[in-house]
Design a protein that fits this description.
This protein has helices spanning 21-49, 53-97, 120-154, 157-162, 299-311, and strands spanning 5-8, 13-16, 182-185, 192-195, 198-201, 207-209, 214-220, 228-235, 238-248, 255-256, 261-265, 275-282, 285-287. It is of the alpha+beta class. The strands form three sheets. Strands 5, 6, 7, 8, 9, 10, 11, 12 and 13 form a nine-stranded antiparallel β-sheet that branches. Strands 1-2 form a two-stranded antiparallel sheet. It has a two-stranded antiparallel sheet with strand order 3-4. A hairpin with a 6-residue loop joins strand 3 and strand 4 (192-195).
Amino acid sequence: MRQRYRFHHEHLDFVREKRSFRRVLWNILIYTLAIVFMTVAYYALFSLFFDTREERALQRENKLLTEQSERLQEKMERVTEVLGELEQRDKEIYQAIFHADLSPLNNKNYTTDSYTTLNDERVAQNTSVKIKELTARAAGISKQMNAITAIFYKTSKDSLLSMPMMQPVDNADLSRVGASVGLRMHPFYKLLKRHTGIDFISGVGADVYATGAGRVQMAMRGQRGTGSRVEIDHGNGYVTTYSHLSDLLVHQGQTVKRGQVIARVGNTGMSVSPHLHYEVMKNGDYMDPLNYFFLGLTPGDYEVLRQLSTSAGQSLD
């Protein structure tokens, strides 16, 4: 053990220094506190500037969960928007066709909370609430479908056969549709005018079909306005018109069936190019023909037709 010496001024010599117990205890305390302080400071600095392997793994997992949460949120918003549009379209269709006044569904905007802001208990509670909301919505849809089924069975078979429910031309690839109902630029006047039907782009001579069973109330040839034209009375207030025709294959008073060829596509009247202008009227009011294309169309096909027809800024007549 090393001995400590100090200079004795009276003896003018170095004498061995004797350390007391208190002195030794004090030195031990000082060294211990210094070690503890340095350890805490080192740990704090290390934690501030460096992450452990476990922390880096948790950060990566948290980042992935956050990204998944954001993607789920976007999907939820898109699905909710599409459901809202479909519910509105279905409501309009069933009101127009089955004369049903169905109560609107409770269309809530469902949101997905970020994983970074929820603990396990909060996630469980949030999931439980969403399950209850979806269950209530499913019950509402089931109730509405039961009401629609009841209305359907009350509707006579003849009424369904006579209802205009198909496209009037061959359009399997969905590419022949033009401008639909709404304000459209007139090809001749270059002004916004109300377009009362939907245009189907096709070559001269293409078949035109009756979209429902009925009686021909007009089969007129002409070169002005709507050109050669056929009108069919389907009963129950429904009338369909087919304009700008080339050949007429039916006559006034004739009874026709759904899918029967009644005319050929032409370019007569005020038409900028060969096409068929098709209209649906209910009790004298112009309806959107898109809402009556049930036969042969899936929901995806309908959405394609809707986008194409609403994006066309100019009509062909």
